[in-house]
Amino acid sequence: MRMTRAAVLGALLLVLPAQADGDAVTVSDLVAEGEAWAGNTVTVEGELIGDYGRRADGSVWTQLNGDAYVSEPLADGGAAVGGNIGIGIRMDASLAASLDPPGRHGIRGPVVRVTGVWRWHDSRRQGESYLDVATLELIESGRPIRNGTDWASAALGLALLGSAAVLWLFGRRA
Questions:
Q1: What is the pLDDT of residue 7?
Q2: 80: CATH
Q3: pLDDT tens digits, residue range 36-45?
């Protein structure tokens, strides 16, 4: 009987997902329902963007975007499907030490899966809402994004500039 209970318990532990990872949520969930997740351990995926703000306390702050542009950047042919959606994250500097630069114009930032406690209007940080990261997993390294020239827009711009120059010259002669 004791052996059967141990076998069943062991089988359940193998089958059930580990709760240490936290509830999987999206950035949109945290933005829309932040108070409902307050104090909970959550796991979120997204692209690190902006800058790595290194602080004297050994932490690094940055932004984690979790919108459609994470999987399909515009410069790689993705469609424009709304605005950027992001949250602030705080992590130990050791987690950020080997990361590629965060995303910005011409650079796709690292795509990561982070787990930590969602701090909703944290009074210790002047009411800031952010994810206090405990673990970070790299999903995709950062990389340059090709920013091809839109020749039609360039030609139109040059034509408008030329027209303005011609009008200016005729205006000076009159």
A1: 46
A2: 2.40.50.140
A3: 999 999 999 9
Q: Are 75 and 145 in contact (CB under 8 A)?
A: yes
Output the six-digit token pair for 125: 């940080």
Find the mean pLDDT for residues 133-162.
85
Q: How far apart are the first and last CA of the chain?
A: 106
Q: What residues make up the domain containing 69?
A: 19-148
b/e map 48-83, b = 16+ CB within 10 Å? bbbeeeeeeeebbbbbbbbbbbbeebeeeeeeeeee
42: left (phi over 0), alpha (psi -120 to 50) or beta: beta
Q: How many domains does one find in the chain?
A: 1
**Does residue 11 have a pLDDT over 60?**
no
User: Is residue 167 included in any domain, yes or no?
Assistant: no
Whether the per-residue pLDDT at 5 is higher than 70: the answer is no
Strand, helix or coil for residue 28: helix
Would you say residue 11 lies in a domain? no
